[in-house]
Amino acid sequence: MSKPECLSPFSSPGTADEDHAGVHVPPPVLHIAAVLSGVGLATVFPLRLPAPTWLAVAGLLLMTGALLIAGWAFREFGDKSNPVPPNQPIGALMTGGPFRFTRNPLYLALALLHAGIGLLSGNAWVLLALIPSLLIVRFYVIAREEAYLIRRFGKAYRDYMASVRRWF
After folding, report:
1. Residue range of the domain that includes 101
2. Torsion-angle region of 156 (φ positive above 0: left; ψ -120 to 50: alpha; else: beta)
3. What is the pLDDT of residue 131?
4. Do residues 137 and 83 make contact, with C-beta atoms less than 8 angstroms apart?
5. Angle, helices 53-79/105-121, rounded to nearest 10 degrees
6. pLDDT, tens digit, 9 for 90 and up, residues 99-153
7. Separation between Cα atoms, residue 37 and residue 126, nearest integer Å
8. For 16-63, what is each residue's pLDDT tens digit?
9. What is the chain's alpha carbon radius of gyration, rounded to the nearest angstrom?
10. Total H helices, total E strands in the chain
């Protein structure tokens, strides 16, 4: 008899017989939903940031940094022939490129992009929505990925965890 498939994206992390992290909601979707929630809240309860030019410039710089980090990380995924979606098995532990500085360069890039959008738009709700996004990514996505990578790579991943920070 086969194990029934769990339909909830917030169920427990994958088990040892699953060769992936068990993340069924892609992290970009979480951030998009949060940004759109911030935009929606702003239409009902406007909460604007001050409008100095430097905030817009900071937003553009964050967004540019996010794109550079993401591009670098995507290149590493391609070089290792690993899939990007966290619901697929990976073949190699990634420790080069941006993974030398952060275990989660794509999630860092998403957070920077999200913050940049909030600053550039002057929408404080978008910035505030970053907080639950980060918490969900940390405790739903990253926790599952780390458990999977420990199952998959054992001591090699534990050593990597000990030498490289989660975010930056």
Report:
1. 27-163
2. alpha
3. 97
4. no
5. 160
6. 999 999 999 999 999 999 999 999 999 999 999 999 999 999 999 999 999 999 9
7. 7
8. 446 888 888 899 999 999 999 999 999 999 999 988 899 999 999 999
9. 18
10. 6, 0
Q: For residue 9, is it within any domain? A: no
| Distance separating alpha carbons of residues 162 and 154, to the nearest angstrom | 13
- Any domain includes 60: yes
31 within domain boundaries:
yes
Q: Which residue has the tokens 């599952």?
A: 144
pLDDT above 80: residue 90: yes
Residue 17 placed within a domain: no
Say whether 167 sits in a helix, a strand or coil: coil
Q: Which residue type occupies 136?
A: I
Q: Into how many domains does the chain fold?
A: 1
Residue indicated by tokens 């540019």 = 64
